[in-house]
Design brief:
By secondary structure, the protein is α+β, with helices and mostly antiparallel strands. The protein contains 17 helices and ten strands.
Length: 570
Amino acid sequence: MTLLSRQDIDFLLHDWLGVADLVDRDTADAILDLSEKAAARDFLPHYKLADRQQPELVDGAVHILPAIGDALKSCADLGLFGAGFAEEIGGFGLPHVLCSASFAWFAAASIATSAYPMLTAANARLLTTFGTAAQVDAFARPQIAGRWFGTMCLSEPQAGSSLADVATQARAEGEDALGPRYRLTGSKMWISGGDQDVSANIVHLVLAKIVGADGKLPEGTEGLSLFIVPKLLPDGGRNDIVVAGLNHKMGYRGTSNCLLSFGEMGGATGWLVGAPGQGLRQMFHMMNEARISVGLGAAALGYRAFLLSTTYARERLQGRAAGQRGGAPVAIIEHPDVQRMLLSQKAYAEGALALCLYCAKLVDEAGDADKAALLSLLTPIAKTWPSEYGLAANDIAIQIHGGYGYTQDFDVEQLYRDNRLNPIHEGTTGVQGTDLLGRKILGADNRGLDILRREIAHAAAATGEFAVFGEALAAAWQEVEAAIDAARAMDPGAWLHHATPFLWAFGHVVLAWQWLSQAQAAARHGDERFAFGKAQACRHFFTSELPKVAPWLAPMQRGDAGAPARTDYF
């Protein structure tokens, strides 16, 4: 089974993104070859079985499908858990963009299994960024090697995404070689990989509030601190962490998802990362990496569904060609409506993958302040647009398969269920809209926006066959600018009402820019069929998707106040 298009990935990395300044072609090819083969060999075979045999909680321990453990051990043996880390701490020193392309193969094969190494790498990267040398040696290195797995523990049952309401407490207990030591009590909800039986240990990164000298907790997010709370302590003893329950989900079923209780027997031991009160800033380092990875996983699921749809449409014989009476049935790919759906899938799936790899390259270039600012601005788009439109590609896949697509005999129904979580994962679409408009635009110095504005203007100057697309892009960007100007004149209650439609529109303009750039690069590629496909997807996006921008933004531009304050009419 073809999971992704290797030709497209090679094009994106080498012809479009120009990663030669980051990694040589032979190394890139070797990693991609390895990833493609390992994903098909180790991850894909248990894809459907992991969906049927969900994690189980037995006598306080979570048991997951053994095949998942076997696949992850193989991945660790290949060194892919820590491929993006420096060689001196056990990695390969590969650029993030290549690691992201590698990850896409595994996500396409089994998104639930790939969640474990994704979270583990993000956990270890946070520790190597903010932890002490002792903490890196004790807790990051085993994760880089793939022997231990990692989690991020933010949400709580009563708080959800409102992290200011986190109630988990940390009480100072002293200090040792690993840093200031605390006792934590509280509960954490929706913890992916919160417990399982395939890794030697689990490193939880836990947001909590330090109890003050007056016995009170600090208020707001400024009072959040970050703690390393391992399942097993350095002496091998069990930490005071209990699995209080498992969440059984619509999709992603191979990933254990837990309600964890810390401190039922007096307090779970944890070590402070960095300084008190810096927890949310530190955790955002992990969250932002995870957000791009979530978008990448969503793109991979949409891409696999697109390829499955294309294969099915070529093989399924049904009906006659337009204007034809009698004769043998034709493949449904000959029907105009199926062609329209496939073109939408192509625009969504290939566009989403391109966006995520573009942002992954920005991670590698984040030492440049301009690149870092652009990455910060685009992160909500990289998380949300693939999550929404990768899912749209999955939805279309079911439609193309017809009644068969709605059965468990074909993979497309599970791909849809798996992908439906991604618009919620790592901050819902609404959270990302508020982050984009509120923090990244209205509340920022606009450095990232200025850089994007220049990129859009450069692309809009396209000539020849692409000139018409450049003009459309410039017009759409003016709609965005007008909406931003309107938002600056609104009070928060009003612009918050429009934040999600603004996110949709902003994301579509970003994708139009990237589709135009892809089509131009493909025209220089040398493969006529490939270039034709990119040009048609670009044309489709500009004619069928970009026109949605103006209606999405119109209420905001008019200054509509949004829904009335009262809520009793719902």
